[in-house]
Amino acid sequence: MTLSTSHRPPLADEVTAKLRQMIHSGEWQLHQRIPSETELIQSLGVSRGTLREAIKALAHSGMLEVRRGDGTYVRATSEISGAARRMYQDHTDEHILEVRLGLDTQAARLAARHATADDVAALRAVLAAREVAWNAADYEGWAQADWAFHARVAQASGNPLLHELYVSFGDVFHQDLLKQQRKGRLDGLTNEGHGAVVDAIEAHDAEAAVASVNQNLNSCAEWLRA
């Protein structure tokens, strides 16, 4: 983890990039407390001021959260995700759903064109786990599986930028799912936009995939208005 000494950018920028990489690589995981300031100073070989400048930059981007008297925690895995967390705090459930509509329909459309047999098998496995979690009243597990399904559709789209963008909203959409469940009267196993979209993807039917996503999200919109 020692930093290079020749032809490097400003040291604070290099430290920021190093810390960012620790998060991107998964070495520092979401919600985990990162090593102490003393440990990082020793391992990086930098001054306290340089380290604090780097942490401040990542905290400003939303990737880290400094808790006075407790430590510094990973709050997002990318700058996009960090920005999404902050932005979504200021928007309604309806606004979130409208963004989901745009992302989900495009992901489903492209997945119907590009998904492989392995993609379809993975999607069905995630839906099976989702059903088990819901029936066991494991709503945290259900929300994680539901989110994993949508992220996997985005991955199957074959567009890495769309997948990265979708994943960046993961924490926000996950919490929104749990909020919907806690309101009650939510059918957590509705097939529209889930099993139906997998069938459409497997059949390479882009129009049917988009239609099933629209039906599911429109039902969610009606539920929110009710």
Structural features, described:
The chain has a two-stranded antiparallel ribbon with strand order 1-2. It has 226 residues and is mainly α. It is 69% helix and 4% strand. The chain has helices at residues 11-24, 37-44, 48-61, 79-88, 93-114, 117-135, 139-156, 160-168, 170-182, 195-202, 206-225; strands at 64-67, 71-74. It contains 11 helices and 2 strands; from the N terminus they run αααββαααααααα.
Features:
226 residues, mainly alpha, two-stranded antiparallel sheet, 11 helices, 69% helix
Element layout with pairings:
Layout: H1 11-24, H2 37-44, H3 48-61, E1 64-67, E2 71-74, H4 79-88, H5 93-114, H6 117-135, H7 139-156, H8 160-168, H9 170-182, H10 195-202, H11 206-225
Antiparallel strand pairs: 1-2
Q: Could you write a compact summary of the structure shown?
A:
The protein is mostly helical and 226 residues long. It has helices spanning 11-24, 37-44, 48-61, 79-88, 93-114, 117-135, 139-156, 160-168, 170-182, 195-202, 206-225; strands at 64-67, 71-74. A hairpin with a 3-residue loop joins β1 and β2 (71-74).
